[in-house]
Specification:
7-stranded mixed beta sheet; 4-stranded antiparallel beta sheet; elongated
Length: about 450
């Protein structure tokens, strides 16, 4: 008997027991529904991660440190006993001590073949920032403008990828406009922005303090010990658009690297943190594989990460979360497998006479077994199709709401359905159902036709 005829007969047999077939298929549909949504969420998360990396990290960039602990590896000195060996080039954050890059390290990295440019990661806390036409002083973060990243602007213009803004330029985020009470973003272009920083005076000696106290009292001594302040003036070049895939530009003003260096050196001059950096970013020459330069730097004792490393880390997190959801779906499928076995065994018992008649009419035991396995495959197909279609319909309907709730931004979706993975899923469920129907089909194939015909 031809396979297609057996498959058609299997379909007709299932139609005769519609309620049982539907209920068994729905058990599989639960797992198929969860798996389809999981696959869609995984694909959506990976595509969003790709956009996030592309929008904020130059693919030719390297993130370089002196301490592998910044990448979650060994190398830090944790609190423990509360004692650790003093290192003048180290910085302590909480109870963890990190080695820092020095000016000599920066020069050594710059000399590595393939490095186009290198910028230390400046960590500067400013006192306040003032905008032209506003008397209020604001607190703000200041970051370095990334030449390798092209931000989307609301108003104004920014240089192309690989080019820097001028020393006198500053870029502010759209989020600041509401606080400033500005309705027309273009009115900010060309306005002055004053960034004020301070440092504790390190040149005042105890003798000078004593003399000031003797001549002018406490007020004179306090005035002498007041932190030094310096103001840096810039002109607004552009206002960046709020974006779901933007990182630094959404929370800080951006200035040229040379200006960040000037501010950092003013603030840290005379302190142990002068020209010390937690990390640095480097740009590799076009045509040079960042992984090759990374290997050279790590040989020299500088732990390094590439843009692909960062992408892999995000993908690993996505895959772990997706795996957890798939695990729950697998449990639902395991339960449905037992449902198929039970359904097929009952079907064999109910149709014992039919099986005996089919064998008496010349149908082989092998074809009988195929008939029941194909029935199981039909159940798997129906369950997979129902679950996948429900997931697609519901997922498509809620996608805009989910995107809005998670602030993923226009053009991004958490759930991205792809045809090939869904087809593979349905075929896999059919195979699983056929495996589940193996023992019932084997029992049906071994029935003695005479004994089967005698069964009531």
């Amino acid at each position: 008997m031809k396979r297609i005829d057996i498959a058609a007969r299997a379909g007709r047999s299932l139609r005769q027991a519609k309620a049982r077939t539907l209920l068994t298929s729905l058990a599989i549909a639960v797992g198929a529904f969860t798996l389809t949504l999981s696959l869609a969420a995984g694909e959506g998360s990976r595509q969003y991660a790709d956009k996030l990396i592309a929008s904020n990290v130059d693919e030719q960039s390297l993130f370089i440190a002196k301490d592998a602990a910044l990448f979650g590896e060994g190398g830090s000195q944790f609190g423990g006993s509360g004692l650790s060996e003093y290192d003048p080039d180290a910085a302590t954050r909480g109870n963890v001590t990190f080695k820092q890059l020095t000016a000599a390290d920066i020069e050594a990295i710059r000399a590595v073949k393939g490095i186009k440019e290198i910028q230390p990661l400046y960590q500067v806390a400013i006192k306040y920032i003032k905008f032209e036409g506003k008397d209020t002083r604001y607190t703000s973060e200041v970051s370095t403008y990334g030449a390798g990243i092209v931000s989307e602007t609301l108003v104004g213009s920014l240089p192309g990828r690989g080019e820097q803004i001028a020393d006198g330029d500053i870029v502010i985020p759209e989020a600041y406009l509401e606080t400033l009470g500005v309705k027309d973003a273009s009115s900010m272009l060309g306005k002055s922005v004053a960034v004020t920083v301070g440092r504790t005076s390190s040149s005042v000696t105890s003798e000078q303090l004593a003399q000031a106290f003797a001549s002018g009292g406490v007020e004179a001594a306090a005035a002498l010990a007041q932190p030094e302040e310096k103001q840096f003036i810039y002109k607004v070049r552009a206002v960046t658009k709020q974006s779901a895939t933007a990182l630094a530009s959404s929370s800080s003003v951006l200035i040229a690297p040379s200006q960040m260096k000037a501010i950092s050196e003013f603030v840290t001059q005379g302190t142990a943190g002068f020209q010390k950096y937690m990390a640095a970013t480097a740009i590799v020459n076009d045509g040079t594989d960042p992984a090759t330069v990374k290997a050279v730097l790590e040989q020299k004792g500088y732990p390094t990460q590439t843009a692909k490393d960062l992408q892999s880390l995000i993908f690993t997190i996505v895959n772990i979360l997706q795996g957890i959801v798939i695990g729950f779906a697998a449990l639902a499928l395991i339960a449905s497998v037992f449902g198929i076995i039970n359904t097929q065994y009952i079907s064999v018992l109910e149709r014992t006479q039919q099986i005996g008649l089919m064998k008496a009419l010349g149908m082989s035991g092998r074809d009988i077994a195929k008939l029941f396995r194909y029935e199981a495959a039909w159940i798997g197909f129906l369950g997979g199709l129902i679950g996948s279609l429900l997931a697609f319909v519901i997922g498509t309907a809620v996608n805009p709401w989910v995107t809005e709730q998670l602030s993923l931004g226009e053009g991004n979706s958490l759930l991205i359905f792809q045809l090939i993975p869904i087809v593979i899923l349905i075929v896999s469920l059919m195979v699983i159902a056929m495996v589940a129907g193996y023992f019932p089909s084997r029992k049906a194939a071994k029935l003695d036709p005479i004994e089967a015909l005698r069964t009531e």
